Amino acid sequence: MTGWGRFQGYNIASLRRDIISGTIVGVIAIPLGMAFAIASGVKPEYGIYTTIVAGILISLFGGSKFQIGGPTGAFIPILFAIAMEYGYENLLIAGMMAGIILVLMGLLRLGVLIKFIPRPVTIGFTAGIAVIIFTGQIGNFLGLQGVKRHEAFIDNMKELGLHISTINMYSVLTAVICLAVVILGLRFAPKVPGSLIGLLCATLIAALFFSGKVTTIGSAYGDIPNTLPSFHFPVITWERIRLLLRPAFVIAMLGAIESLLSAVVADGMSGSRHNSNRELVGQGIANITAPLFGGIPATGAIARTATNIRSGAASPLSGVIHGIVVFLILLLFAPYASSIPLAAMAPILMVVAWNMSERKQFLKLLKLKTGDSLVMFITFLLTIFADLTVAVEAGLVLAVILFVKRMGETHLVAKVLPDPESVKVAAHMVTDSHDCPQVGIYNVEGPLFFGAAYRFGDTMPEPGPSQPKLIILRMGKVPFMDTTGEANLAELVKQLQADGGKLLISGIEPQPLELLKRTGLYDKIGVQQFFGHTGDAINAALAMIQTERCAGCRHAAFRECAALAAVQEAPGRIGFKSHKPAIAGKLSSGI
């Protein structure tokens, strides 16, 4: 989808729809922007600045028709940790660096790679973030005094326990009023911005009936200015870049995941299709620019995007209007926002945490008790008790290990022989009394890669005088081979050739064949040793066997065996070369 393609067929009716939806989303975004900023450890106005600047730019330059961008709950633990460890100025620089990474990802067309992050990992860290957000608001909900926020989850829980005696019932009442309005709004009037109505009701009641008895935004952070901050370019040095590279990368990765997930949700609701690489570029531009105006990192907001679509948005202009609406409200009503109690902000974030927790998917996956359950649960625990970076890294590594294990288990190697009744080869035909001492046929199924190479090596015969000198590998069901698999195959060829034997391969797929040609193993095996059908390979193998060893053999592995044994026991009769291999001939047309 091109930039102008998103406005195809635009008219006055579309503009009217965009104005309505943009206004609704803008009103909803104001309390969320402030709440996310406060929870991230910065002043509430920085959340509003982010909503305005990033929201407009994401809609203008992004790849989704209906995406609404701004500060989100998913960023809270990361931004809080960065702000605590490095300070607000460095948080802005990290956001700009993340923006540059996102732009590069989009230009290099890496948007599709985000889709390969396993679902258990995303569920795990999303649920973990939800727990951190929810528990982080308990102090404000209860109005506890003297509570210090820490980076570690355990330390924050200890802090709540130490100050539980300072509970403020006026704060609890304020929070309960806001929470009740939000919940009732979601149940009975889902189209009404419940968070804003709840915030207004709780603020009004607190101001009228217990003014000065609850902590407000103004008393905690100072008055909110009713203007945009002046343009400020932070001081960037190589030392700061080196110091903030890892935090910036984490912001970029999470921003990419959240924005593309939101875009996918928007596609499902609207029937449109987003451009993932363009979306990353748009997110990057927004995150480079927002810090220049004091804004914190932003990404696609799933709930606000869904509201935008449900409100009738027709184009990305609704996202631009949403930013303008927030700016106008900032100009007109910023002084009043300073009177909002922090206890009224807490339930809004708690509801956000509850909604983003993916609790149903979490419990469903946990009950399955599979490897995916383990990946999700470990990611969840590490998100809470370590940090998101460690959690995602560990989750991805564990997911890869489990994937390799599963793929390795799908790799099967079995010795087979022709079944006269089905005119196919089967493993049950091989027994101690029914096997060929000179020709071994093996079915190889599944990818032959580093995770499965041990199975291949364990199944292949050990070198020795009693082992078959002619090995046929049926590789029609090997879709992929890596260099480890090729090395195992090369070792088998080396052993066979050292003992005067040969390897024959039938039905090989294009990718393994191409790899063998590139490594030179194809030529080492010999072009004449590759066959399209198993029957042809058996014919060739029977033409190479030592017929004198067939004398007295009672294995009768092939239909030809009886005639071969008879020829060797009666030397005056016709030799092997005049014998027509009936079973092999049938196999060549069917296998």
Protein model, in words:
By secondary structure, the chain is an alpha/beta fold. It is 61% helix and 6% strand. It has 25 helices and eight strands. The strands form two sheets. The chain has a six-stranded mixed beta sheet with strand order 4-3-5-6-7-8. Strands 1-2 form a two-stranded antiparallel ribbon. A hairpin with a 4-residue loop joins strand 3 (412-419) and strand 4 (424-426). The longest helix is centred in the middle third of the chain and has 33 residues, at 238-270. The chain is elongated, with a radius of gyration of 34 Å. 45% of the residues are buried.
Summarize it:
The chain has 591 residues and is α/β, with parallel strands linked by helices. The protein contains 25 helices and eight strands. Strand 6 (470-477), helix 20 and strand 7 (502-506) form a beta-alpha-beta unit.
Key traits:
elongated, 6% strand, alpha/beta, 25 helices, two-stranded antiparallel sheet, 591 residues, single chain, 8 strands
What is this structure's SSE topology?
Elements: H1 12-39, H2 44-61, E1 69-70, H3 76-86, H4 88-107, H5 119-136, H6 138-142, H7 153-162, H8 169-188, H9 194-209, H10 217-221, H11 238-270, H12 276-289, E2 299-300, H13 302-310, H14 317-337, H15 342-356, H16 359-368, H17 371-385, H18 388-410, E3 412-419, E4 424-426, E5 439-445, H19 453-459, E6 470-477, H20 483-498, E7 502-506, H21 510-519, H22 521-525, E8 530-531, H23 534-544, H24 560-569, H25 582-590
Parallel strand pairs: 5-6, 6-7, 7-8
Antiparallel strand pairs: 1-2, 3-4, 3-5
